[in-house]
Amino acid sequence: MNEELFLHLAEIGGVYVGFGALISLRSAEAREPHARGYLRGIVWMGSGVVLLALLPVLMVGYGLAGHALWVVCAAVAAVVYVAIVVMLNRTPELSGEYESRHRAYGLAFMSLGAPLHLAIAGTLLVILLGVAPAIEPTLYATAVTAVLAFATWTLVMLVWDPLPPKRARKAAAVRAHGQAPTSGASSSAMGNHAARPRPSAGRHGSRARRVRAMTGSRTGGGAR
After folding, report:
1. pTM of the model as a whole
2. Based on the structure, what is the number of domains in the chain?
3. Which portions of the sequence form the region Disordered (predicted)?
4. In this predicted structure, what is the pLDDT of residue 222?
């Protein structure tokens, strides 16, 4: 068994866990349901890589070796991976993901996700059946590497998003709806102001004549 290889895989998985946690804490886009779901998958798969990579190193200390060692590790890996897949599929943020987002996005994700699923399931099944005991360490390392590759692909799909964030779409919609009533209200106010009748020149003239007549009568009365 190449212990150094498994230790390096565990280190890389730990980097993915820390990286996903850092993004979820520092990035504003991580608050979007789509981003939260994919970050959760990255953290879970990274944690699974750490566990599965350190498992054979730990089991050797308990005296397991040969086919028994890899059968135990493959059984644990199968349970862990199935649990991760089930939890991700039951995550509310990812329910209906491929139906609600761009179709090309889902097809691109499954173009590599499906082969990785088959690689993980196939290598673990070969170990459990004992078909190729001579290469079981390599098969197990392949399964763990495939889980790590799945986490990497999930991170790539998180970065590549053909649709703008939901928050940006909502803000754009609010701005669009908010500007229309404002412009309409201003135009209607201008229309009302323009339609308001102005006092005619005749009224002003008659009022001025009445004022002058009253002033003249008061002046005449004072002279008498």
Report:
1. 0.65
2. 1
3. 175-224
4. 46
